[in-house]
Amino acid sequence: MASWPPVPDRTLIGKSIKRLDGPVKTQGTAKYAYDIARPGLLYGRLLGSPHAHARVRSIDLSAAKKLPGVRAALALVDPAAGEAAKVRYQGEEVAAVAAVTEEIAEDAIRLIKVDWEVLPHLATVEQAMRPEAPAVFPKGNVSQVSERVEGNADEALGKATHLVEGLYSTQVQTHTSLETHGGVCEWEGEKLTAWVSTQAVHGARDGIAKALGIPQGDVRVIADYMGGGFGSKLGFDRQVVVAARLAKEAGAAVKLMLSRKEEHLVTGNRPSSYARVKAGADASGKFVVFDAETWGTGGAGQGAGFTVPYPVYVFPSRRQRHRDVYINAGPQRAFRAPGHPQACFVTETVIDELADRLRMDPLELRLRNLQPPDASGVDAPNRQWRKYFPMGAEKIGWSKRHPTGDAAPGPLKRGLGCAANIWAGSGNPQTRAACEITPDGSVTMRIGTQDIGTGTRTLVAMITAETMGLPLDAVQAAIGDTNHPFAPGSGGSITVGSVSPTVRVAAEAARAALFARVAPALGADPTALEAKNGRVSATGAGGKSLSWRDACKLLGTEPVSVQSQWEKGLSDVGTSGVQFADVEVDIETGVTRVKKIVCVQDAGMIVDRLTAESQCIGGIIMGLGFALYENRILDRNTGQMVNPNMEFYLLPGMSDIPEIDVTLVDQPERGVVGLGEPPTISTAAAVANAVSNAIGVQIRTLPVTPQAVLSALEQERAGGTL
């Protein structure tokens, strides 16, 4: 049974190690899918629908095919296919071309003639929910109500001493990965190689093979480097399949990468959320009830699920009645901690309002209503908010927090807010890895995972080197290729919990095989050998030793090669954390400046401290975008997105990033846990509550734009926000 080395014996694990791919990325020599250049490479482009809802009556490719330089053209919609001949959102793909230059491909797209029958569309949840709305979706514009109930909400509402009631909402946040979706496809006979920007090389391979109707073994997917995904690149994506079809028709490799506009329109989003909430507490500050009617849109035919109240706090009676609302917009996809930021914002905002009703410190109110410890009075290792809240409060200076509404003179108001997170990622037991030690001393760990920017390549090398007692540069991590053993997609914060144990198991097995071959030369039992500081030694006084290279020479011409699988006990399930925000708001302009974010996050057994801190910082920056800036805006009359670019779809820039103070709680006895998603969950809620504390008016909607702040202040002056 594999195990992690004792903490005092670790030379790499738990330390701050710079990423192995840092130099090649900063030098510009790392090859992303966008950088792949194959002999005779053609360039693919897609024709997307300009309409939010329409039927394709006909597609004429003849003019495009006659354009010099065009090598292939495809219709992606069959006009005779009934419902399948309809497009349901702007940008939905209807045709594609491949040409010798990008410019010719763009010209060819403009030559394609499509006869459209424009149909009624729905651009907002308000439009879709109206009784007189056109029946756009076959199963209705609004789903049937789903209900989650525990306790008696109606009875509890009558018994609550303090009640708050309000409508809370969050916007649609689109995926804006720096590297857009797509890839390069090249056929060799009936076998396809695809260089894809993907979060799941094996998942992409399986999806592409199924879509093309060919064996999985005939598809190889490579993703050596990729520029962000955040959930949107877990699928195989239609554009890669289209590139493969174009490459087949043209008899040449085809690169098809989406434009920035297409990225906004078709690659998924975080759904909106709306919650009409009634929540109550008793006179002592114990929560009594949380009753919510919720809805939201995930776009065309997609759900918008989120669960309230957020399960950090105990509400004895709770009820949620939820409906999904469908509109003519790009469908949602997994987006870093799906459903959690919305639920966290709604719940944590309600809690701050209840604290004001009770005239109680909102931190104290949270501490009184956390999930209870176990029978022995101890909080579970992955649910330690009772410990983390005081730690964060001290770092942010919570003792100096003023009651809601900064009474200081002048237009600049300061405020503090807080929120908590929970996540339950775990390892995938199907994960495999292969380790090879060659007679010249080289060590290679092969695993079909992918590094989506989180440092996975570095973790693989660190664990391998630690196990072999070698420096980091003495081992090679081979990842991002379906020719390597299976590993799951990088989603749900499961990568570190899947990959790290499997790599450790494979490395230990390879080391044991080496020891078995070397033991006779050292006159020792294989179980009495150790690999440390670049040497293989017999333990105990007077034991013989060999340098790593000399030990490996004893392999002769036959390398050590083992394949192993994930084992239980090296990783754990779930994590928890808290965040605090310090903001400054100009009540004359409505502009919010976040001055500081404090993050306290359970990290289980930390493998690379630098990478773990980076995960938290990146998640917080994404949370700031959700809190203050990002918002998909659709034209109500056309259903078209009016800000599908990096100019008007606002993202945090360097000048918007506050001081970020990250405290990682290292629990080595737990084993590794995922840290990709939790840090982004609670940022927006903490920021919004800090804004409310500053201006004296509860913020109930995201993003907290200047207009939102000024509108909240104006509503308060006009008689309140309810």
Question: Could you explain how this protein is built, in words?
Answer:
The protein has 722 residues and is an alpha+beta fold. It contains 18 helices and 28 strands. A 7-stranded mixed beta sheet has the order 3-5-1-13-10-11-12, with helices on both faces. The chain has a 5-stranded mixed beta sheet with strand order 7-17-16-15-8, sandwiched between helices. A hairpin with a 2-residue loop joins β10 and β11. The N and C termini lie far apart (60 Å).
What are the SSEs and their pairings?
Elements: H1 22-27, E1 42-48, E2 54-60, H2 62-66, E3 70-75, E4 86-87, E5 93-99, H3 102-111, E6 113-118, H4 125-129, E7 146-150, H5 153-159, E8 162-170, E9 173-174, E10 182-188, E11 191-196, H6 201-212, E12 219-222, H7 238-250, E13 254-257, H8 260-266, E14 269-270, E15 273-281, E16 287-297, E17 317-325, H9 340-358, H10 362-368, H11 385-396, E18 412-423, E19 432-437, E20 443-446, H12 456-468, E21 475-478, H13 495-522, E22 529-532, E23 535-538, E24 545-547, H14 548-553, E25 560-565, E26 575-586, E27 592-602, H15 609-629, E28 659-665, H16 678-681, H17 683-695, H18 706-717
Helix pairs in contact: 9-17, 12-13, 15-17
Strand order of the largest sheet: 3-5-1-13-10-11-12
Amount of beta strand? 15-25%
- H/I helix tally: 18
Computed structural class:
alpha+beta
Biggest sheet descriptor: 7 strands, mixed
Q: C-alpha Rg, in Å?
A: 28 Å
Rounded average pLDDT: 97
Shape: globular
Question: Got a strand count?
Answer: 28
The helix fraction, in percent, is 25-40%
